[in-house]
Design goal:
Blueprint lengths: L4 H9 L7 H4 L2 H7 L14 H11 L11 E5 L3 H9 L6 H4 L2 E8 L1 H10 L8 H24 L3 E5 L6 H8 L5 E10 L13 H4 L11 H14 L8 H4 L7 H8 L8 H7 L6
Antiparallel strand pairs: 1-2, 2-4, 3-4
Helix pairs in contact: 4-8
């Protein structure tokens, strides 16, 4: 990698940061900062032993109170892959990636531990759902970093939650276990492109949050992102108008102006969770 960590972060955030020497020399930091969007893979398998080892690395990440409430399901069966891919028509790479996993939150194991030890499970509220979701997110991010460190590429798929009942049936998920994200894994077919991020003024705060007004930061980001990663397609011009300047903010506002996952709460409650 020819670019320095400072170069990569400047490209990502539009700001030249002061980088301490130890961090600047870290190949791990440079690799994470150089994350690219890649959804096309070489026709080359990813060995199951390698995937399992990456799972072990990912599950070495911090876990809330050492409760260890994240699971990974490696989907190898062609029939199961096809069933999941059919639920993801807008994500064709889910069918084509050499390997595919589903990252899950698991509160079932904790409840079984209580039963095994004869202690009451008294925290049956929103936290019982939230903690596994956070653990699963940490494991997902750690898996991505570990995989990309050895040259693999990944693509998380949140749309796995669009049809959670079907996913749970395909994977045999018990009560109190739920899918958080799918994850494509493979060897990259091209170098990929960097997605700029919101400026740090919008997302990094010292001592106190900088406030709720993000208009200036969003405007700066829209303009900067359109210089290198303009959207090639627009969402629903028939509804929102083709004359509107299109950028990240317009795309995300249009995306969430349509109902999405309205049955998610019902599914989670059907898994047994109480969300008070």
């Amino acid at each position: 990698m020819s670019k320095t960590l400072q170069d990569l972060l400047a490209e990502r955030f539009g700001e030249t940061l002061v980088i301490p020497e130890a961090l600047a020399a870290s190949p791990v930091a440079r690799g994470i900062a150089n994350h690219r969007t890649i959804r096309h893979y070489r026709d080359e398998p990813v060995a199951l032993d390698l995937v399992r080892a990456l799972c072990a690395v990912a599950l070495s990440a911090p876990s809330k109170s050492d409760l260890q409430q994240a699971d990974l399901v490696i989907v190898q069966s062609p029939a199961q892959r096809s069933a999941l891919a059919a639920l993801l028509p807008d994500n064709p790479w889910a069918a084509k990636a050499p390997a595919f996993l589903v990252v899950c939150g698991n509160n079932s194991r904790q409840r079984q531990v209580h039963a095994l030890r004869g202690h009451p499970f008294v925290n049956d509220h929103l936290d019982a759902f939230f903690n596994p979701a956070v653990d699963a997110g940490i494991v997902l991010g750690t898996f991505i970093a570990a995989a990309e460190a050895i040259g693999l590429c990944t693509c998380p798929i949140s749309a796995i939650r669009n049809h959670p009942e079907a996913v749970a049936e395909v994977l045999g998920l018990p009560d109190y276990v739920y899918p958080v994200a799918g994850l494509c894994l493979g060897w990259p077919a091209h170098p990929g492109a960097m997605s700029p991020r919101l400026g740090l003024a919008a997302t990094v705060h010292v001592d106190r949050h900088g406030g709720a007004d993000c208009a200036a930061a969003v405007a700066e980001y829209d303009a900067r992102r359109n210089l290198t990663r303009p959207y090639r397609e627009r969402r629903d011009d028939a509804r929102f108008g083709a004359e509107v300047t299109y950028g990240w903010s317009e795309d995300k506002a249009r995306q969430y102006a349509r109902p999405e996952r309205q049955g998610w709460g019902k599914f989670v409650r059907a898994r047994g969770f109480k969300l008070d």
